[in-house]
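Listing S7. Sequence submitted for prediction.
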Amino acid sequence: MSDNPQRKIIHIDMDAFYASVEQMDNPDLKGKPLAVGGSEIRGVVSAASYEARKFGVRSAMSGAQAKRNCPDLIFVPPRFDRYREISKNIQKIFYEYTDLVEPLSLDEAYLDVTQNKKGNPSATLIAQEIRKRIFEQVGLTASAGISANKFVAKIASDYNKPNGQKTINPEEIEPFLEALDIKKFYGIGKVTTEKMYQHGIFTGKDLKRKTSEYLEEHFGKSGAQYYKIVRGIHNSEVKPNRTTKSVAAEHTFDTNLTSEIFMAERLERIAAELEKRLQKHKIAGKTITLKIKYSDFTQQTRSKTLPYFVSDKGIIFETVKELLYQERMKDSVRLLGISLANLNTEIKKTIVVQLRFEF
């Protein structure tokens, strides 16, 4: 723990954010199993209310599977403009406490309150106050994790969800991580969890018994990171300006598309939507990527890098059309998307952009 700078980090995570907004705005939906996005026929669930989660409904699940899990499930279309509006109001509260705010998405952020505008030495009390203000001013509940680094704060915020918080003091970090199930370590997904099980690693304590060399041999570069984090060593700072790496727009269709002509029509609309976002944030890029998801859920991308920065829908569409006709489609298409990377944010003021996914 001696390698750790002593910071006071709060991770705020809104509770079932999209679904909670819908229930707040429409009282008839309160207390009912709700899915934002998708439908019982098509699409993918973007968010689920806690009532729906009891039936195993989760984000990224197909609408059809979600409906099978919960026959009474109510589907509502997402309203990203509304979610962004509320997210901005929540972030205004954050900035009253510190300028060191790192948004991860519309519904979660890290705050470094080591030195804060309220002069409050207790990060735990600050988190309580922020959660109380979010509820009173916005009408939604939030959970929080408080610790000496971002990694532990992130894990802690999930501990007493919904509408709770947990503080892991510096001297408690290692015992807390030792007792933690390995699948609850932030950043360790299903595949890595299964691999760890095969190596006899079921808890943080098991992970801690492995040498750095052993972990690097079996888990590559990530092994060195696992060796550090289980010892509470995670020195990443809260970064208030996160550089945007790409901007994207995509659409899932109600009916699969089988003709490139129909696909081109849809792509022209997607290019127009992308142009709006780029111009709003004064962003341009050089690498244009076409994303294609087929009816069997396999995915393909095709990219082209231009010698100059672009944000114009005409140039983007012409490039994407060229990529579309590059080779024949292998199957009918359920989703198309366009993204722009290799951005000029390296040389411009960094901007946080929340991507919007349409259903």
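Caption to Listing S7: primary sequence and predicted structure tokens for the chain studied. The first helix runs from residue 17 to 25. Residues 244 and 353 are 7 Å apart (CA to CA).
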